[in-house]
Amino acid sequence: MVRFRFLEESCDYKHKKAELVLVFRMKEQIYCIHARNCKKVIEKPEIIDMPAIEKNVIGGMDFNGDIIKIVDFNQLIGGVESEWTEDSKVIIIKRKSGFIGWRVDDVVNTENIFPEDVKTIESPSEGEFLICLDGLVYLKNNIKAVLVNI
User: Is residue 4 domain-resident?
Assistant: First the structure.
């Protein structure tokens, strides 16, 4: 299991409010999500087959005694189904309706971002796995990432 510290969801830095994000990769694109929405990162989950599931759902897994859906993040945002690799991980996301897992190609790190630095973008979203692409933000080393919101 990969462990990231989500001790502080935000902090003050030079009189600006910074927010902690979890940075992950899907295909060649870098994404980030607010750490406050992330419960856990799991390296090699045991996936349970689920009958009659939606096309984005690749199965389920036991999380704290409940079976939660695992979705392919690449399909969720409109891409094609991705393959499991050595680096693939599942990010457990906390939502109002419970938990869901996103399979991603890799989890990179955590970073602080400033909300005023996020450049808004248009975001189509649909279905049960409603997500929003909040905008673009530049991380350390001038890496551009898409900020995802649930």
Answer: no
* pLDDT single digits (tens) 100-109: 999 999 999 9
Residues 6+ apart with CB under 8 A from 9: 19, 20, 34, 35, 36
In this prediction the pTM is: 0.82
Q: What is the DSSP string of 30-69?
A: EEEEEGGGEEEEESS--PBP-SS--TTEEEEEEETTEEEE
Q: Which domain holds residue 51?
A: 10-149
**Neighbour-count burial of 102, counting CB atoms closer than 10 A to its CB (0-12 exposed, 13-18 middle, 19+ buried):** buried
CATH number of domain containing 62: 2.40.50.180
